[in-house]
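hey so u asked for the seq, here:
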Amino acid sequence: MTKQYLDPKESLGVEPDADRNVERMTPCCLDVRPKNSYLMGRGRGGGAWWMIWLGMMCVVLGFPMSFYDGDIEKGIPAFLGLCAIGIGGFGLSLLWPIHIWKNQLPMRFNRKTRKVYFHLKGNTYIEKWDELRAYLKIQHGVTAMGAPLRDPQINIEFHGDDGSTLFTVFLMGVDRISLPTDQQAPAFWEYIRRYMEEGPKGLPEPNLGVWKPLDLNGLYLQNTPFPIFKSKAKWVWPFEILFFFPLRFIWFSISYPTELIYYVVEKHVKTKPFPPDMEAPCRCEQ
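ran it, structure tokens below
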């Protein structure tokens, strides 16, 4: 099928939108996470957060599962085994998203130079914005659990001196339930396009929502498993006590330590700096 390349000058007629696919926006430069970094990178919903969450799930749910028959002598080794699987197994898996988080630089759109930069394996590749060859695609696949997958992508080609395509970088569209899948990539492309053509003024801030990184000062203080104490309708209390409270308590027990551990990880992961040929053009005062 012939690729339908996008025209950087032509609007797609959709509202611009962005979320965790944007890492930083200044008057000169827009930094956008490639697909791997989008899926594995920082913030809630990233691979690092989910690896910690799965480890905590094994620990929290493993406790009642290990002692369900009341045999303490058998329960303790079983619980320690589940902890080893959760913390050790998912802990080792955590190394891969942290590696991507540390080392994969975002793609940089520079309004001042009207160029697009991408750093790969020690080299910086540059494309002119006005001649950019980009196209939209919904990537079909299957998840590890066997569920069908449809990833809305913006595919951007980078070329050699002879004009041949060296590689293609995939950018994810916005993750928004309110948008049909086939509009999620166009919404993000329109965000990038308007930034390059008109600047950041007038663009909405990236809508992080549930992806927003942890603010330790407000850590779940307003989201405890005990909303019954705030409820004025006493007729709902039996439902709260018998059904909703246990579910909220389990979620709280898993997520609260996840957030704390992730907070520590986030504070200690130092990302790779931009090379001079990408950083210098983004100094707006020059």
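Residues 36-103+248-286 form one domain. The mean pLDDT is 85.
lmk if thats what u needed
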